[in-house]
Amino acid sequence: MNEAAINRTREPDIVLLTGGTGGAKLARGIAAVAGQERLAAIANTGDDIEIYGAYVSPDPDLVSFSLAGTIDERGWGLRGDSFVVMDALRELGVEVWFNLGDRDLAWCVQRARMLAQDVSPTAALARLNAAVGVRAQVLPMSDEPVRTWVRTGSAGWCGFQEFMIRERAAGIIEGLEFRGAEQARPSEQALAAIARAGTIIIGPSNPLASIAPILAVPGIHDALRDADAPIVAVSPIVDGHVLKGPTAAFMAFAALDCTADGVADFYGELLDGIVADEDVGRLPTLRTDTRMDDEDARARLAEQTLEFAAGLA
User: Fold this and answer.
1) Domains in the chain, start-ordered, CATH in brackets?
2) pLDDT tens-place string over residues 163-172
3) Residue 18: strand pairing partners
4) How many alpha carbons fall within 13 Å on the CB side of residue 92?
């Protein structure tokens, strides 16, 4: 039996904890070198928002679109999407501050319809992914609502999407809450994926805004700590800078250096190693170029990360 056939017959054994853009790129790379069937991506749902009659789950959807090969080059939305509905809403006097393409909107409306029929978020996303040929498991961190709220001196408390889009991620961050996390439970599928994992990777996503909501769901941190698999983080800091988003501002809020060392400090005892373009003295480090500008770079980083983790097992 060839390797492709073996991959089709096995349960996922690579778990990726992920937010949106960077994690979605790494998921694509892992799928390229190991096969989608081996991947279970547990994605942050703290950014979710209900708007325009749709249920939008940005981070899981970015991973799904990336795996389907349909993600826009901007890093969000669908390639070649139109915005006819958003334009029509504006003509009707609706304040359109959250822009969704037409096909993206259809995806999110269909999710809302399934949720209204008591389909779980995990099952709804599985059906959407099956419809577009995604064979990896893309798993919401919980089937219960958890929402990330951010406080700044200028805007006060606001939901994550309002902070990112309406406020343009401006201002000094003074507070961060994951509302509903204490009452939420991990999905059964997420816990099962962690339990059977041979490798666990924390993607190059914002540690505070994208990965911390996952770890805040009771049971996930303990499952990771008890997992019989090496846990490796890929640093989102490249050449001393953040490529996209307000990671630096969140790291400053948490009094962490915006370096690979700061990332390692945040994850603490969970990590067995880290992948970065700089050395981390207290952890086994794979020092390599962590940029993922194209398919070859994504596959190269994924392959190096998997080999590094295997050496730590």
Assistant:
1) 3-48+137-312 (3.40.50.10680)
2) 999 999 999 9
3) 43
4) 9
